[in-house]
Every structure is written in structure tokens, then in C-alpha cells.
Amino acid sequence: MPAPLRIAMVAGEASGDLLASHLIRALQQHVPDAQFFGIGGPKMQAAGFRADWPAEKLAVRGYAEVLRHYREIAGIRRQLLNRLLADPPDVFIGVDAPDFNLWLERRVKAAGIRSIHFVSPSVWAWRGGRIAKMARAVHQVLCLFPFEPALYAGTGVQADYVGHPLADVIPLEIDLAAARERLGLMPDRMVFALLPGSRQSELQYMARTFIETAKLLHQRFPQARFLVPLASRETRTLFETELWRSEAQELPMTLLFGHAQEAMAAADGILVASGTATLEAALMKKPLVIAYKMSPASWRIMRNMGYQPWVGLPNILAQRFAVPEFLQDEATAENLAQALGNAVCDNTLRERLHALFTEIHLLLRQNTAEQAAAAILPALGRHRRRDPRG
């Protein structure tokens, strides 16, 4: 008798945890006896995943920050590899987190374990040399964007476009009035959503700038309200500390635990830290401005590694500067407030962005979890291991 399928997975942050949880549930529809284990977060665990280490151990961003945690992260990776080699799974699926997963995937592939990477690294934006690393490390890659499979042509890697999960869960049309009612907001007031990042390291560099931006916007729009969704108690504490230091406690600002999509749905304009949240903002069909700051050491390393003029996903998908981007020293409160304030007042721009973002939404809406499961299932059948007990 065949043993139950054993699927090892690694997801390193909140977005990977969500993505992997959807994939687990989709696979369970086809292989209900499958066992899932490795490194994952609470959403994966709620889907039946056994987390030998929590995903938050890997949620570190920026070269300087990673170096400080390198010993612990490398130790976890080595321990997991030893377990996988000692008791091989039927397949290993690395969910995003390429700096952690590619090292691991290369070694499990060399050991004869089917190696799959879910979410192609951003080789189209920077560090294009990782395409060769991907070819050495994985048998298959699941791509969220339609232009990515062509990048793997001739590498021997099976590349499947599966769409982006955010496009599945966010409605094509946003009900502004309903979103404001759910948050207890007046229907006719100007509302800004501020998303300074989901990690403590991001808040350390961007919280003050976002607060100062809110001050300037409030001077220009005295009736405006500000919504700030924060991912954790730690990030909320950091933001509240900066509010106190900035003497901005009197700003009409509401801090939310999570509820990022609800805040963006209720907003007229969005200020967002570069990352997946920029795509969420675009799928809301709202004017937005992208900002990002990091440690000076990390910035010195990364600023010359990109080979596209854009960092925000809406601009990369549009292949032009559809929305403003301000990075590091250019990410000043004055620049951000002026750009966002001008955008929300320009009706022609709002209509143009709505049309562009609708096109992007339809392109990415592919029922990602089911597409990913369908792409993986043939390999599961071929690589299923036999139960040694017969």
C-alpha cells in the first residue's frame, strides 16, 4: 500500500503563510490523506500543517538585519535539511523566501527529492543571476505573474503561471460606502490609508515619515481621516511610540490590528511601503504613492542591484511609472504628501488608474490555489514513495 503523501513546506512570512495555506487546502481536495510539515505560520497550521518552526523566525528583511540573525536562521535551515535527508518527503515546496529556500531546495533536489518553488523570485527586477540558481535548485516553479515563465525557457525548469491569489480574493469593484460603514467612517470625509510595512524593521525606518506625511496632508485636508493598519502588537507599539515622539497624538488617526484591505477599500488615497501591499492597493483601484526606506547599509548594497526603473508591483506590471515611487532619501514627508494630495484631487488620473488597475486585476485573476495544485499533482503521483511496511 502507498504511504500517505508527505509534503514538506517552508514559508517565511505572513504573505507566504497565507499563500501556502490556500495551496494546502486545494491539495487536500485531491489528496486528503496528505501530511504537511516544515516551517509555517498560523494560517498553515489552521489548515492542518505541522510547524516544526514558526514562520516568524524567517521574517527578517534587509541585508544588515539578516546578518544579525544569520546564525539562528542558518541553524534552523541545517536542522530541517538533516531531517529531510534522514526521512525524505515525497516533495518539498519552498514558498517564497528565496534566500532561505534556494539553499535548501538545491540540496534536497540533489538528494533526489522533488523540489518545487512557489513564487518566482523577482529575477525580473534585480539579481537576475538567480535564474541559474533556480535551475540548479528546483524542478518546478509556480509563477504569480504572466511574464515570468518565459524567463525560465531553456533552463530545464518547469515554469507554470498560476495567477496571483490577491486577484482572486479582492473584488473587481470596491463598495466605498460599505467599506466606510464597516469602519464607522463618515461617507463624505476624505480618508487616507497609511501602510508603513508589516515588519518591525520597516516601521523603524518609515513610521516617522508616514506620520509627518499625515501631518502635512491634514493641513491641506483638515477634514481628512487617517487609517493605519498594523500587522502585530509590536508594530503597533513602534508606531504609537513615534506618534508620541512626533507630538501627533491629536491627528484624526485610527490604528487597526490588521484589516489592511478594509482600510484601503475605505480610502480615497493610499500611502504604502513597497512590497506586496502595493499590489493590494492597485487591486483596490485607488490612487497610491509608494515609499520605502531601509538601513543605510542595506540601501548601499541594494540600490545598484536593480535593473528596472521601478520597484512597485503596479509599475512593474504596467511597465511604466503609473504611480509615484519615492525611495530612501527621496521618501520625505513633503514629497509623499504633495504626490498623494495631488493624486486624490485629480479626477482624470483617478479614472485612468481605475482602468489600468482593472486590466491588471483581470490578468492576475486565475484561481491561484487550484491552478497551483493542478500544476503540482502530476509530480506527486510520479514521486510518491512506497510504505516500507508494505
UniProtKB/TrEMBL annotation:
A biological process from GO: lipid A biosynthetic process
GO cellular component, one term: membrane
Keyword Glycosyltransferase: yes
HAMAP family given in the database record: LpxB
Tagged with keyword Coiled coil: no
Gene: lpxB
Keywords, sorted A to Z: Glycosyltransferase, Lipid A biosynthesis, Lipid biosynthesis, Lipid metabolism, Transferase
Identification of the protein by name: Lipid-A-disaccharide synthase
Catalytic reactions on record: a lipid X + a UDP-2-N,3-O-bis[(3R)-3-hydroxyacyl]-alpha-D-glucosamine = a lipid A disaccharide + UDP + H(+)
Enzyme Commission designation: 2.4.1.182
GO molecular function, one term: phospholipid binding
Source organism superkingdom: Bacteria
SUPFAM superfamilies assigned: UDP-Glycosyltransferase/glycogen phosphorylase
Job description of the protein: Condensation of UDP-2,3-diacylglucosamine and 2,3-diacylglucosamine-1-phosphate to form lipid A disaccharide, a precursor of lipid A, a phosphorylated glycolipid that anchors the lipopolysaccharide to the outer membrane of the cell.
Protein family membership: Belongs to the LpxB family.
Pathway: Bacterial outer membrane biogenesis; LPS lipid A biosynthesis
InterPro entries xref list: Glyco_trans_19 (IPR003835)
